[in-house]
Amino acid sequence: MNERNNQGVRVAINHVSKDFPVDNGRMNVLNDIDMEIKPGEFISIVGSSGCGKSTLLKILGGLQSPTEGEAYVGDRMVKSSSVEVGMIFQESRLFPWLTLEENIAFGIHKKMPKDVREQLIHEHIKMVGLEGFEKALPKQLSGGMQQRASIARTLINRPKVLLLDEPFGALDALTRITMQNEILKIWELEKTTMILVTHDIDEAVYLGDRVVVFSSRPGTIQKTIEVDMDRPRERNSQRFMELREKIYSEFFGEMSYNH
Q1: Are strands 68-73 and 42-46 parallel, antiparallel or unpaired?
Q2: In 74-113, alpha helices (H)
Q3: Contact status, residue 72 vs residue 11, Cβ threshold 8 Å
Q4: Closest by alpha carbon to 193, among 7, 46, 35?
Q5: Rounded to an integer, what distance in angstroms lies between the CA atom of residue 133 and that of residue 115?
Q6: How far apart are CA 224 and CA 33, in angstroms?
Q7: Strand pairing partners for 226?
Q8: What distance in Å separates the CA atoms of residue 142 and residue 121, rounded to the nearest whole number?
Q9: Could you give the angle at the alpha carbon of 142 between the alpha carbons of 139 and 148, nearest 5°?
Q10: Do the beta carbons of residue 197 and residue 45 sit within 8 Å?
Q11: Other Cβ atoms closer than 10 A to 25
Q12: Which strand (E) or helix (H) includes residue 93?
């Protein structure tokens, strides 16, 4: 990139709760979520299905409104979507009729000079290792390549915060590990604040500075665990195993995770 000053910003979640109407009543999905994420921090959120993890990301992305409380990205209260906040989903959500470079360029402001625009597209294609596939359609790309393209399309607006909603859940194990390392490279390069929702506890420990464990619905913060390991992290190290077991014990009580 031309400049490497894209420092992430602080994210504050102040007593956020979320209800949805069901039949003649209300379903409480999130209950009193209160946490602060430092600029450039990488947070992993784990929890059972239906505990409101993805709902929280949608609130931070301005796609849904909280029933109570508020969320801030930097000094801005989140009330709508913004280019400051990028979101990557489990499905790549590429436009099937556009080429790779057209998909990545989709979010760029149309008034940007053509040479600057082309340089920006090239840099992002290079960043995610897809040089040579500029003219390929999504159906000609593997699942991992499609997800890389989706990441490049999201990053081209230089978001200060990146929300990752199970982004590697549909990928095979080897591609998943490759993509985890790719997102770490981008995080180290861009210093973006990242918030990852995942069911994969190994992934949460490998990527996160902290792992936030949600209770079952309504989602509350059950435990926050500091990942006190240097990077790159060794998945088979004793400390990694200890942290993984600690998180499993939050889910299963006294049940020990059997290595």
Answers
A1: unpaired
A2: 100-105
A3: yes
A4: 7
A5: 20
A6: 12
A7: 210
A8: 20
A9: 105
A10: yes
A11: 8
A12: none
- CA dihedral defined by 188, 192, 196, 202, rounded to 10 degrees? 10
Q: Is 189 helix (H, G, I), strand (E, B) or coil?
A: helix
3-state DSSP call for residue 242? helix
Residues 6+ apart with CB under 8 A from 180: 168, 203, 206, 207
Torsion angle, alpha carbons of 122, 127, 128, 133, to 10: 30
CA distance 10 to 193: 8
Q: What is the mean pLDDT of residues 185-204?
A: 91
Q: b vs e for 222-255, b when ≥16 Cβ sit within 10 Å of the residue's Cβ?
A: eeebebebeeeeeeeeeebeebbebbbebbeeee
Residue 37 identity = I
Per-residue pLDDT reduced to its tens digit, 29-55: 999 999 999 999 999 999 888 788 999
pLDDT tens for 90-125 read: 888 899 999 999 999 887 877 778 888 889 899 888
At residue 168, what are phi and psi to the nearest 5 degrees?
A: -115, 10
Q: What is the largest CA-CA distance in the chain?
A: 60
Residue type, 249: S
The amino acid that residue 240 corresponds to is F
Distance CA 179, CA 171 (A): 9
> For 204-216, how does the pLDDT look when each residue is reduced to its tens digit (9 = 90+)?
999 999 999 998 8
